[in-house]
Amino acid sequence: MTQTTAPSAASGPRLLLIGCGKMGAALLKGWLDGALRPRAVAIVEASEAARAAFPQDDRVQSYADLAALPETLAVDFVIFAVKPQQMDTVLGAAVLQRFVAQKSCFLSIAAGKTLSYFASHLGDKAALVRAMPNTPSAVGRGMTVLVANGQTDGVQRQICAGLLQAVGQVEWVQDEDLMDAVTAVSGSGPAYVFYLIEALAEAGRQAGLPGDLALKLSHATVCGAGELAYRATDSATTLRENVTSPGGTTQAALDILMAEEGLQPLLNRTVGAATARSRVLGAS
Question: Residue 132: which of 176, 167, 182, 169 has the closest Cα?
């Protein structure tokens, strides 16, 4: 079969996106609007309603299932954006071996699915990249960590990073075992922050504030502090110190949060539990 060559910056990569839910749709929008201009995007999505909502772009073609893909379709990158529990079915499609023969690179954003798992379905010669994005990717503020196997070349790594940079920041790790801790910190981390909003609001109610006001204050404070941290050149430590006057109200609160049995050991246990669970799920 004809083998593909690495796409040039001028032509842009040819993409196959399998699954186009919330994360897939965010990625698609980022690709079409961003600097990494794809030459073509084929999308496989079972939901008719989701397909109807795809951007009207002459680069985009959609299909209800993998069996409907044209036999002449050639792609540079295959992106798996389906739920982990659907992955066995997806990887059982014979058409994927055609893309292995084309030397396409396979990029997965499915939580818990390891490089060895994909190699067991696609073969040891497949170029594989595993990514762990988080939900702020939906608003362009994502954090994604990637790890690649030895079959993935430098150009493929660069383009995979560009595909995820369309929805936020990107970092690479060399040791795949670190992905469990990555999942615990950035993958699950948004839920911790959302719970902080809830808990801070409840603390405000306990202190006597009306419930709706406590929630509004908590929500605005957490979101505003996050935006400040995002834009600031100072470290989180410096930002915290800037808010803290010696002997003031913030110091009284931090004396509780930074106590020996305060927030840090609680977060250590939190991330440890999520890391351990990620290892169990990855082994199943």
Answer: 182
Q: Buried b / exposed e across 240-272, counting CB within 10 Å, b at 16+? A: eeeeeeeeeeeeeebeeeeeeeeeeeeeeebbe
Q: What is the pLDDT of residues 231-260, one digit of tens each?
A: 999 999 999 999 999 999 999 999 999 999
Residue type, 167: V
Produce one character per residue of 98-117: b if its CB has 16 or more CB atoms within 10 Å, e if not.
bbbebbbbbbbbbbbbbbeb
Order of strands, edge to edge, in the sheet holding 105-108? 60-63, 40-44, 14-18, 77-80, 105-108, 127-132, 142-148, 168-172
93: left (phi over 0), alpha (psi -120 to 50) or beta: beta
In the predicted model, what is the mean pLDDT of residues 197-201? 98
* pLDDT of 222 above 70: yes
Share of the chain above pLDDT 90, in %: 81
Distance CA 7, CA 174 (A): 25
Q: Give the whole-angstrom CA distance, residue 221 versus residue 57.
A: 39
Rounded Cα gap, residues 185 and 134, in angstroms: 10
pLDDT at 7: 55
**97 close to 117: Cβ distance less than 8 angstroms:** no
Nearest CA among 129, 134, 194 for reference residue 169: 134
DSSP-based three-state secondary structure for 174:
coil
Token code pair at residue 267: 């977060």
Token pair, residue 220, equals: 């605005």
Q: Is the pTM of this model over 0.85?
A: yes
What 3 state SS string does 176-204 have? HHHHHHHHHHHHCHHHHHHHHHHHHHHHH
Per the prediction, the chain carries an average pLDDT of 93
Question: Looking at the chain, how many residues does it have?
Answer: 284
